[in-house]
Design goal:
alpha/beta; TIM Barrel; two-stranded antiparallel ribbon; globular; binds flavin mononucleotide
Length: about 425
């Protein structure tokens, strides 16, 4: 019997909380450089039967920004540590296609997939911030060029993952043959940006291939996602906008011979819970009261790809502000909301301070569950990337108060049905295309 459609849930892990001032909440974790903090978050995610935990990354830092952007572990290293203390939850991390070699990235995520027994996911990002270039001694390519590189990069990574066929490691004691060489091939890739021979020194992954995540919303970003992604994170502020974006991405997949169910679309949402609606709003106001104007402005300028500190805070956000060369997704969603709701710079700065441009929903557990259900059932998404304002408390509240409601309504799994991330996402294990 076909299973009823159910949500997928991810959690965006930032040790000090997704809210820019979440660490100031009483009892909140104080650091993103503390393994016990992320281990606790991963335990809560498994208690909530989450599909995956997600660790973002940037290749430069600014002490004036979000505390968990300013001081953090390198995410793949951190996931390797978490692989040892978790059993089911998917482990997703960002690695840039602009400032890496595909051979390195393919190898890292293949290793993580083996280490975790099939739970690795790679968030392929083009790195929007040009400050990364200063740390790699290179020029920062323009937006379009970054995506041209990314298209080839993802193909090379996937090609490298296909160099080993299943059953290549035979360990035949009688003949003394350890590996069947007929089941290991080079990639022999010669492209515009990369020349990679292969194979990797890593046998075929437990998942066949690790999961590929993506989060770009520009035209080339959507093409890359429609062609290659398994999970897509989106930035949305409005139900209609989310439905249109969802439909646009799913229909674009046909161009690449893919079925719409092969991608799970997960918008980011920060739930703020209270025992009454008023209490939830009060909590959000209290959090917003902790925001320091300096770092919220740095965050807003980064999201909009330009310094906006010279605008008077009470002036309306002008309607002719161009989309930046950095991230179309964040700037597009935030500016559309600002224009729709005639927001001032102060309002937009509050939005950036809360969830860095993501959607915030404050209410009782029932109200939040109702909203998530409405978005899911009206095909605005296939689930959510949850952004707890602080850790671990706000995440525990979601897992203990909202997840049971979703389970009771049949919208969410009561238990894992397999051990691998592909099992949670309902995606089949791919065969190697080289054999
Ligand atoms: C949930 C989410 C997580 C993201 N994580 C990262 C990240 O860790 N590192 C990064 O450089 N960009 C990250 N991004 C940015 C995008 O992946 C993308 O590179 C950027 O938005 C530019 O693409 P676009 O112009 O196509 O939107 C994230 C975006 C979203 C929505």
């Amino acid at each position: 019997m076909p299973q009823p459609r159910q949500m997928h849930l991810g959690v965006f892990v930032l040790g000090t909380g997704n809210h820019i001032a979440g660490w100031r909440w009483p009892g909140a974790a104080q650091s993103f450089e503390d393994l016990s903090v992320v281990q606790e978050i991963a335990r809560i995610a498994e208690r909530g039967k989450f599909d995956l935990i997600f660790l973002g990354d940037n290749l430069s830092t600014d002490p004036g920004m979000h505390p968990s952007f300013a001081a953090r572990f390198e995410p793949i290293t951190m996931l390797a540590a978490l692989a040892a203390t978790t059993t089911h939850v998917g482990l997703g991390a960002t690695a840039s296609t602009t400032y890496n070699e595909p051979y390195t990235v393919a190898r890292q995520f293949a290793s993580l997939d083996h280490l975790s027994g099939g739970r690795a996911a790679w968030n392929a990002v083009t790195s929007s911030g040009e400050k990364a270039a200063l740390n790699y001694g290179r020029e920062h390519p323009r937006h379009d060029a970054r995506y041209e590189i990314a298209e080839e990069f993802v193909d090379v990574v996937r090609g490298l993952w296909d160099c080993w066929d299943d059953g290549a490691v035979v360990r035949d004691h009688a003949t003394g043959r350890y590996i069947d060489p007929a089941k290991v091939k080079p990639l022999d890739h010669e492209g515009r940006f990369f020349r990679v021979k292969g194979p990797l020194p890593t046998s075929r992954c437990p998942q066949g291939q690790p999961i590929v995540l993506q989060a770009g919303s520009s035209e080339p970003g959507l093409n890359l996602a429609a062609r290659t992604a398994d999970v897509v994170f989106t930035v949305v502020q409005d139900l209609g906008e989310a439905q249109a974006g969802y439909q646009a991405l799913k229909s674009r997949m046909a161009r690449f011979g893919r079925h719409p169910d092969e991608i799970a679309v997960l918008p980011g949402v920060m739930p703020v819970l209270g025992s009454t609606t008023a209490e939830a709003r009060e909590k959000l106001n209290r959090l917003q009261g902790f925001v320091n104007p300096g770092n919220a402005l740095v965050m807003l300028s980064s999201r909009l790809g330009q310094d906006v500190s010279h605008y008077p805070l009470d002036a309306l956000v002008p309607e002719d502000l161009p989309l930046p060369d950095t991230s179309h997704g964040f700037a597009g969603a935030m500016l559309a909301k600002a224009w729709r709701e005639r927001m001032t710079w102060r309002d937009l700065f509050n939005l950036a301070g809360a969830a860095r441009g993501h959607w915030v929903v404050a209410g009782t557990p029932e109200e939040v569950a109702d909203t998530l259900q409405q978005w899911f059932e009206s095909r605005a998404c296939d689930g959510f990337n949850i952004l707890p304002a602080w850790f671990p408390g706000a995440f525990e509240e979601f897992v203990d108060q909202v997840v049971p409601l979703l389970q009771r309504r049949g919208l969410y799994r009561r238990d894992y049905r397999g051990n691998m991330l592909r099992d949670h996402l309902g995606l089949p294990r791919p065969r190697s295309r080289l054999f």
